[in-house]
Structures are given as C-alpha cells and as structure tokens.
Amino acid sequence: MSSRINKNHYRNNCSKWRKSKLGKTNPNNRYFMREIKKTYDDFMDRWGSYIKANDPQHYYSLINKPLPKKYKKLNYPITPVNAYVPEQSKLSHEELQKRLNEEVALKKQKEETERKKKEAIRLEKERIKRNQEALAREKNYIFWCDPHEPINKNRLGSSQIIKKKNYDYYYWQKILLWYF
C-alpha cells in the first residue's frame, strides 16, 4: 500500500538498468556533422587535387561552388562568319523559284500519298467494324446443327403439348383416387 502512495517508489526500489539506455549513445546533430566534416576533409586532402585535375565538374560540385568559366564548354560552334555559302544563294532568281516550286510539288505529292494510305486504312477499319457488328447482331442465328434431324424437331404444337404434361395434376389425381 505504501508503494502506491510513495511517488518515488520506482526510482528508489526498482532496478537501475530499467532507467538506463544500456550503453547506447544519443548523439546530436553537431556530433554527426562533426564526423561528416572530418571524413569529408580527409577525403578532400587526399583526393581533391587529383579530382580537380581530372574531373573539375565533379570537384566543384563536391565543394558546392559553381564551375568556373574556363572549365565550361561552349554551347555554340566556333566557325568563321562566312565559311559556308548555301547553295541557294548561288542560284539566280528564276532558278531559285523553279527549285522552290519543284520542292512544293514534291511535298504535295508526298502528302497526297500519305492521305490516300490513311484513307485506305480507315476504310479497312470501318469494314472490319461493320462485319463485327453484323456478327454480333446475327450470332443467335448461327450455331452447329445435325443435318440428319428435321429442322423443327420439338417445335411443333403437338409435340410441345406432349412435352408439357402436368405431372402434378396426375399425381394429385392418383392420390385422390386412392383415398376415395
């Protein structure tokens, strides 16, 4: 009873190992950052100059600085201003117009052939779709049958009447005859 009243019972009477973290460390952010910085500095002291000489882009990304201009590759080609004269500028005005008209005619012809191919493909797809719809519509008429049996077997009125005997009526009729 006294242990319930005494608020310090756990601290005074229970074993000490429950409160401890069993030798586990509880490092904080500064500890981790110090270890990372030490490892990083060791690596850069040993390999920094080699990486800078062989792969400067990687080196500057490791030290978190932008790549200097001397290491950047130029995006534009370095050529003289008038090194290449296009073939069209050598032609006269009439020859240039003639060539442009030929190119336009050739382009129209290619477009026309492409359009015809697409039209043929579209028509073929429509034909296939129409056939599939007809098959779905008439599927209940198409089935396997025995050629040696009559077509309307079990479909005539007299045979249907024979098939549909009311067995319950006959059953009850026999029971009634038996009792009376």
Summarize, please.
59% of the residues lie in helices and 0% in strands.
- Biggest beta sheet attributes: none
Strand element count: 0
Helix/strand structural class? mainly alpha
Q: What's the assembly state of these chains?
A: single chain
Q: Low-confidence parts lasting 5 or more residues at pLDDT below 50?
A: none
General form:
flat
Terminal residue distance: 91 Å
Mean of residue pLDDT values = 78
Provide the succession of SSEs: HHHHHHH
SSE topology:
Layout: H1 2-5, H2 9-13, H3 29-54, H4 56-62, H5 93-137, H6 157-163, H7 167-179
Describe what this molecule looks like in 3D.
- This protein is mostly helical.
- The protein has helices spanning 2-5, 9-13, 29-54, 56-62, 93-137, 157-163, 167-179.
- The longest helix has 45 residues, at 93-137.
- The two termini are 91 Å apart.
- The model has no long low-confidence stretch (mean pLDDT 78).
What would the keywords be for this entry?
single chain; 180 residues; mainly alpha; flat
